[in-house]
Write a structure and sequence with these properties.
It is globular, with a radius of gyration of 17 Å. The chain has 7 helices and no strands. The termini are far apart. By secondary structure, the protein is an all-alpha fold. The chain has a single domain, classed as N-utilizing Substance Protein B Homolog, Chain A (Orthogonal Bundle).
């Protein structure tokens, strides 16, 4: 009997899911980002981390990307939170957001802050996929609007209208 092929690992997706989880954990447990990064690298990422996302593990995640996202989100927290706050409705403070959604927005904003990273639309779509893994209902829609506003603020050139060469 033929075995079904295992779907290819999505190392970058795994890193992004783990980064959201780590940022959430650091905030909720009031732990330093470095302590949480260390915990994830020892217990949740890589070959020693048997299991899957449901168990809070990402065995095939890109560890370097994970560390980069968490560190950038932490080191640039003030700037990132200001961007998120500016993109939210005026009567919706950052603290009102679900803490997982807040972590997701911070992680994506950290990646959007690297102009040499993947295109903004790719990042937004990737994080919306992650959001759908955590939420149903309106949260992914809210994430889409906030991330689009942040991407346009940080990478306006990627959203410029194409030039009509016909004159």
């Amino acid at each position: 009997m033929a075995r079904t092929a295992r779907p290819p690992a999505r190392k970058r997706t795994g890193a992004r899911v783990a980064a959201v989880q780590a940022l959430f954990q650091a905030e909720q447990a009031e732990e330093s980002a470095e302590a949480v990064i260390d915990q994830f690298l020892r217990h949740r990422l890589g070959p020693a981390a048997a299991g899957g996302f449901e168990e809070g593990r990402a065995p095939e995640a890109d560890a370097a990307l994970f560390v980069g996202i968490v560190r950038a989100a932490t080191l640039q927290a003030e700037t990132i939170d200001a961007l998120i706050t500016a993109a939210l409705p005026a009567d919706w403070p950052l603290e009102r957001l679900d803490p997982v959604l807040r972590a997701l927005l911070r992680a994506c904003a950290a990646e959007l802050g690297h102009a040499d990273g993947p295109p903004a639309r790719v990042l937004i779509n990737e994080y919306l996929d992650v959001a759908h893994g955590f939420f149903e209902g309106e949260a992914p829609r809210l994430a889409n609007g906030v991330l689009d506003a942040i991407a346009r603020a940080l990478r306006a050139g990627e959203f410029a209208a194409p030039v009509d060469e016909r004159g």
